[in-house]
Amino acid sequence: MIVPMETQPERTVLSWQRTGLGMLAVAGLVAHRAVGTARPALLVAAGITALLGLLMLGRLAPARYRQVCRRVAENRAVSDPTPARVATAGVVLAAVAAAAAVLMPD
Question: CA 62, CA 83: separation in Å to the nearest integer?
């Protein structure tokens, strides 16, 4: 089955949105743990993770969508490692915050 090219930008933006929403969910869970255990350091980590998730949703996802649309229209390759590296760094930081929340004793 051949997938039409015009669906690629939509799939791309949806994956970026899912990543941002996942980071917001992790931030909420870490914040819940921070409030429940009275750990202000975890609350800071949750805030940073939430900001990264909002950055992903508000800036990176729309910018990547426009970039992919432009490259598809120009019949150029759509791969670009820079946004992927930024997203990977954000997800790794969210994972570190979640690990800290789970591994810190009550």
Answer: 11
The token pair that represents 92 in the structure block: 């790794």
- The tokens for 11 are 């799939």
Instruction: Count structural domains, the chain.
Output: 1
Containing structural domain, residue 24: 7-103
Closest of 104, 102, 95, 89 to residue 26, by C-alpha: 95
Looking at residue 60, the DSSP 8-state letter turns out to be: I
d(CA 40, CA 93): 17
Q: What is the pLDDT along the chain (106 residues), one digit of tens a residue?
A: 444 555 577 888 888 899 999 999 999 999 999 999 988 989 999 999 999 999 999 998 898 888 888 888 888 888 888 888 988 998 999 999 899 888 887 7
Token couple for 54: 């909002």
The model's pTM: 0.82
